[in-house]
Amino acid sequence: MRDRMNNPREFFRIFSTLIFFALISCDQGSERQLPIYNPSDFNPDLVDKSLRNKSKYHTVSDFSLTNQNGEIISQKDYENKIYVVDFIFTRCETICPIMTANMEEIQNKFKYNKELLLLSLSVTPELDSVSVLRKYANDNGVIDSKWNITTGDKKHIYGLARKSYFAVVTRGDGDLQDFIHTPNFILVDKKKQIRGIYDGTDNNEIVQLIKDIENLIN
């Protein structure tokens, strides 16, 4: 070993190898390890009573919704995909325009990546018909193959928000008077697990979301 270390060429080779592995180690250590969220990880106010003690194996529920083209969209369309979910309504003039602009930013960032999709659900489905969603999609640069903006049964949508994606604090059963309004973006992986929750109106959180998407893709 001493002879090898006294050889300048051998010493340089060993030193270079050590530096190489050190750099790889540092690079891997810099990646954020994304958690897997289960009902017990959330504020109990966000979670239906029947799910609050569930600490593992939570996956988002199957869904059946209608998109801006009048097509039925289900979990099969998102199978083996990473996707981001939000809850909006087209007549919203406060947080929704900001959220939709940020979803468009994410869409354009991953425009050519087939592993990422987006999903928006209307919280006023009785008002957001297919024609209304089509105009909204046109006005906001939606690429149909990347981003579904959807309407459907109100109880179904509100059940997904409360029991599947844990997107809202308010309680209700999706009846006529029920209304939810949340800035949350939810990141779902290819196994239908929740991997992150972000404020869709906060630019810093959008930057982090993009990094986390890249982390999942890689």
Automatic annotation (TrEMBL):
Thioredoxin domain sequence ranges: 54-218
UniProt xrefs under InterPro entries: SCO1/SenC, Thioredoxin-like_sf, Thioredoxin_domain
Transmembrane intervals: none
Keyword Manganese: no
Gene3D superfamilies: Glutaredoxin
PANTHER family (alphabetical): ELECTRON TRANSPORT PROTIN SCO1/SENC FAMILY MEMBER (PTHR12151), LINALOOL DEHYDRATASE_ISOMERASE DOMAIN-CONTAINING PROTEIN (PTHR12151:SF25)
Similarity-based family: Belongs to the SCO1/2 family.
The name this protein goes by in its record: SCO family protein
